[in-house]
Protein: Casein kinase substrate phosphoprotein PP28 domain-containing protein
Amino acid sequence: MPRGGRKSHRGRGKQFSNPEEIDRQMRAQREKEENGDAEKESSSESEEESSSDDESESRRRSGVEGLIEIENPNRASQKDKKVTEVDVSAPRELSRREREEIEKQKSKERYMKLHLEGKTEQARADLARLAIIKKQREEAAKKREQLRRGEMKYCILEVEMFHSYSFIQKSLSTENVHQLKQQELIVPLLILIVCDSVVTSLLLV
Structure:
C-alpha cells in the first residue's frame, strides 16, 4: 500500500460514459429542478420559518449539545409581542443589580434597627465607652467640689485666724501681752483660739 493509505489505480483500464446515459441523467436533473421550483412557489411563510427553525435546531444539536439537554434562557427565542398583548399592570421584573441594591438597603435598615436597640457589637461598645466617660466626669465633678470646699475652709480658717489675732491684740493690753510673751503663753493661747474657730467653721460647713 502506498503512503497515506490511499489505493493506487495505476494499471487499470479507462472507463468512458455512455452518451445516452448522460442525456438521461441531464433530463432527470432538469425535471427535478422544475419540480423543486414549483414546490418552493407553493410553500407558505410559516413552512419557511419552521424549516429554518429545524435547520437551526439541527445545527445546534450537532455535537455535544445533541447528547445533553441544555436549557439556556438566553438562547430561547423571544417572539415579538403586539402592543395589545403587553400587560401594563403586571409587575416589572427587576434586574440583578436592582435586586442587590434593594437587599443591601434592607440589610442596612435591619442593622440600624438593631444598633438603636443596642443589640449589635458596636452599640454595646459605644454604651460601655459612654458609661466610662460618665463615670470619669462624675469623679472629676466630685474632685472639683472637694477642692472648692477645701478652699472655702482654708479661706474661713485664714479669716478666723486673722480675727482671733486681732481680738487678742485688742483685748489684751501691751503689758499683758508682754507678760504672756515672757511666760511663753501667747502661742498656746493663739493655738487654742484658732482650733476653736476651726471647729466652729467645720460645724458650720
Q: What stands out?
A: DSSP finds six helices and no strands in the chain.
